Amino acid sequence: MDVLHWDGTLSAKDFRIGAFAFAQKWESCNLAFPPWSWLPCPKHPWLAPPEEEGYLSLEKICISRPNEEEDIDQISQIDTGEEETCCSRNEDILDDATLVQSNHHELHYCDFHIVYSSTFRVPVLYFRAYCSDGRPLPLDEIEKELPACASKELSKKWTFITQEEHPYLKRPWYKLHPCGTAEWMKLLFLSDTANPKFEVVLELYLLSWFSVVGQVFGLRISFKISN
Amino acid sequence: MEAPKFVWEGAIPLQIHLHESQVTTLPPPPPALILAPRIGYLPLLAPLIKPYFSSTLPPGVDTIWFDYNGLPLKWYIPTGVLFDLLCPEPERPWNITVHFRGYPGSVLIPCEGEDSVKWSFINSLKEAAYIMNGNCKNVMNMSQSDQLELWHSVMNGNLEAYQRVSSKLKLATVDDEYASLCLQKSQQSVIETDLPAQAKTGRVPVRLYVLSVSKDFDDLDEIPRVDSWEKISYINRPVEIRKEGKQCFLCKQQTCNWQLCMWRNELDADSQLLYFPCSILCSSKLDTLNLILFLLHPILNFIIFICLLCYMHCSFFADKCFTLHDALKILLPELFLDESLMNVKLGGVDLEDAVRNSNEDVTSDKVVEDQGQNACKRPEACRISSSAEIKLIRIQGIEPKLEIPFSWVANNLLNPDYFLHVCVCVKVAQ
After folding, report:
1. What domains, with CATH codes, occur in chain B?
2. Strand B94-99 with B11-18, pairing
3. Which domains can be identified in chain A, with CATH numbers?
4. pLDDT per residue over B327-375, tens digit each?
5. Is residue A86 flagged as an active site residue?
6. A40 in reach of chain B (CB within 8 A)
7. Nearest CB to B136 within list A47, A50, A179
8. Where does the sequence pass through the membrane (chain A) (predicted)?
9. Helix B2-9 and helix B288-314, axial crossing angle in degrees, nearest 10
10. Distance CA B236, CA B234 (A)
11. What tens digit of pLDDT does each residue of B260-276 get?
């Protein structure tokens, strides 16, 4: 397929191929994060063609800001299972576990799912956030945790958050609305002077896409992986 | 344009009980009777229901939600679809329970009144626009006043206002093969017609709801009650109308005129019934006649619709049209993988003989390919599909025949969010 005439969308099959390529690249280079896992959806198999039945999942990522004054770009850290790790760099002597008013230091986590939308024919980022005790976080509290650059991204028309049902789990999740995705993905690849082949586009699609949407959560893709 | 009128005027008679945990007075308040528009959403009934129950509610903040037999009703699904999906054997009035406390936030998306419903509707419209036009700029760039007018037309069931505003969205609906036939038939007496090629995408936004039943049944009232949303799957899926042949056939010229006459007669009969039961009817003051008419109204609508569709069915040799059957094949490919082996029964019509050779019949190579994949990779899916059976299809309260041109269904039975909501009941042997 000629990339020049490509509309920026993926078929369900392409999504699966792209998703595996992305997960592989992520795992081999982005050591700071756990790997994405592909979750198949065995339920009601006659509803969707088999190649589509699944989504990528990355769960329990700590999104708490270590400090209000901290450099906003470096807020995301992996939760290694020991809850202190996120904050320990800056607050290693401060144990505020018993302080009621210390909301700023309570750890918040995010689950991310990358689901294919057959309407928009692009990947969609679904997410939900919760406290360490499992209590779900409402959107206004999540937004407080997001880096300042996120509000800039979110104020643009193409990435706004809506609360909708997770297409597979059928529970309320948040999602970044995908109605502009195809358009900016196309621009992203057209601006590449190398004019890559479609197979290359497919391989890099989710990576490029995530390098944009991940910014909303301060999830940065290391330079190594994007090369 | 008569069919959309019927859809917009369609309503479900509800008998709403206040949940016992929220009754603080003796005797408990009698249930509220209310006629809920099919195309509406349950939280929009709050202004009618809340005053009725307010005197008995415990103090506190109210968050309204509904359940049917303990199953929380998803407010973002249109009321008519909920009814078609959860009441295969229509229960009239439909007994549902209202709650003002204890919102099940883990199952339902929070609803902060009318505004939430409006945004859910607009988002749905946006998605439909994307499917139909390839972008949703027209919805995004709608003026505030148009957006408001559109929303109010949906809330108030004002079809005329809705058509005025929604026409600005330039959402290309597919050409109605049936309508263009009628037109041509009245002008000339040629049986074969060539439908002109059009620039429209031919993609129809469909929201498909599948209720899975594990036990076989003969009567609709034997379908077990849905106690969990786990038993229902629903997806948004565009259906592309594929034109294999260009022509449809009408068997008799009269049929067409006949049908148009029928529409008109129904309209007259219906308009008399429509005037009175439009808002809340509190049970205490309801006289018997009103109650009977109130209960009869949707049934009459239903019967009329069925009759009409039967006539439509008779008038077509629909083999050259893209039919509802073709659309379902795209939506549920695995149920149609090998029609010669399985016993697909739809609306009492046995389709076993319809297709003997699935490889020749499937509408695209993709389906054949999927079949191949299934054969080697997913033996369990094959097993399921060969023992699964579509028992019931319901769109806007009717059970359309599969031979109906899909373009007619798409143009006439769609909801105001431009989605065609299709409820299917599938029996899966276990």
Report:
1. 2-109 (3.10.20.620), 115-169 (1.10.246.190), 177-249+316-428 (3.10.20.90)
2. parallel
3. 3-45+54-89+103-226 (3.30.1460.50)
4. 998 888 878 775 544 444 444 333 333 333 333 333 333 333 334 333 3
5. no
6. no
7. A179
8. none
9. 150
10. 7
11. 333 333 333 333 333 33
